[in-house]
Amino acid sequence: MRDDPGVHADLNADLYADVARRAVAAALEVARANFGRTLDIEVKGPRGDVVTEVDREAERIIVATLHERFPGHTVEAEESGTLFAGSDHVWFVDPLDGTNNYAYGLPVYGAAVTLCHRGEPVVAAIGEAHTGDIACAVRGRGVTVNGRPFERAAPPRAGLPATALWTGYQTQGDDHLGVLTSVLHERSRRLFSTWAPTADVFLYLRGGLDAVTVYQCTGTELLGSLLILREAGAEVTGADGRPVRNLADLPELSFAGSPAVTLPLVDALSPAGAP
């Protein structure tokens, strides 16, 4: 569902989108140039997340690009945390979405830059590694891919949907996650768990994915990925099936896709005891 673009009329959305695209393109260039070589892999946190020197270099380039053009804006970066605090305009940066995949040679990764204004995502750009494609969305104005307007072609399918599950590392060992995963497997012809939401977004745009389930996911790529899904025609709903108007207020469990796909998932999860 697309919202009234007037809610961000004070933003120079075209300029923001252009800078976001350029920042993502630069990050992808770094990642692709270093893919497959031996990396210094550091464990980040107790749940198996990792970081490499490529994450840090790509982040440095994105932050420099944003700060040079918008020095008064805040940046929330995946590795560096909060930079230049104090603005209503906050850029969320995931310089290498899918670092675990990247670090061990699986080419399922990307990059994401999202601008939030007073807490709400209004501009997003994400890049896909193996094609170099960049999808961009401005709230209320749809999606472009590589600067050209894009309409998702998704012919109706018979049978079960293809779905993806996005979770945070903190859900490991969570009983609710076990129930959720079991129901999704039962209700999906295929369940993707790529640990790279940006890759799943492109899969959705190309019609290979019907819906996304989001459970306790808080990554810096999340809001931008959901904004692009919504601008491509997906409806974002909570576990009660009601639309989520402000993506910044995302509940613990949510869904993105056509209600014809997501509402049956909601109905199936309720009696199963999922959150």
What features would you describe in this structure?
The structure is a single chain. The protein folds into two domains: 5-150, Fructose-1,6-Bisphosphatase, subunit A, domain 1 (Fructose-1,6-Bisphosphatase, Chain A, domain 1), CATH 3.30.540; 162-269, 3-Layer(aba) Sandwich (D-Maltodextrin-Binding Protein, domain 2). It has seven helices and 15 strands. It has helices at residues 13-34, 53-69, 99-103, 175-187, 197-205, 222-231, 259-272, and strands at residues 42-44, 49-51, 74-77, 81-83, 89-97, 110-117, 120-128, 134-138, 143-145, 148-150, 162-167, 190-192, 211-215, 235-238, 253-257. The strands form three sheets. Strands 4-3-5-6-7-8-9-10 form an eight-stranded mixed sheet, sandwiched between helices. It has a five-stranded mixed sheet with strand order 12-11-13-15-14, sandwiched between helices. It has a two-stranded antiparallel ribbon with strand order 1-2. It starts with 12 loop residues before the first helix and ends with a helix.
- Label the CATH architecture of the largest domain: 2-Layer Sandwich
Count of individual beta strands: 15
Characterize the biggest β-sheet: 8 strands, mixed
Low-confidence stretches: 1-7
Mean pLDDT: 92
Q: Counting H and I runs of at least 4 residues, what is the number of helices? A: 7
Question: What class, by secondary structure content?
Answer: alpha+beta
Rg for CA atoms:
18 Å
In CATH, the homologous superfamily of the largest domain goes by the name Fructose-1,6-Bisphosphatase, subunit A, domain 1
The figure for the number of domains is 2
Estimate what percentage of residues fall within beta strands: 25-35%
Distance between the termini: 24 Å
- Binned, the helix content reads 25-40%
* Spatial ordering of strands, largest sheet: 4-3-5-6-7-8-9-10
What's the CATH class of the largest domain, please? Alpha Beta
Under CATH, the topology of the largest domain is which? Fructose-1,6-Bisphosphatase, Chain A, domain 1
SSE arrangement, N to C: HEEHEEEHEEEEEEHEHEHEEH
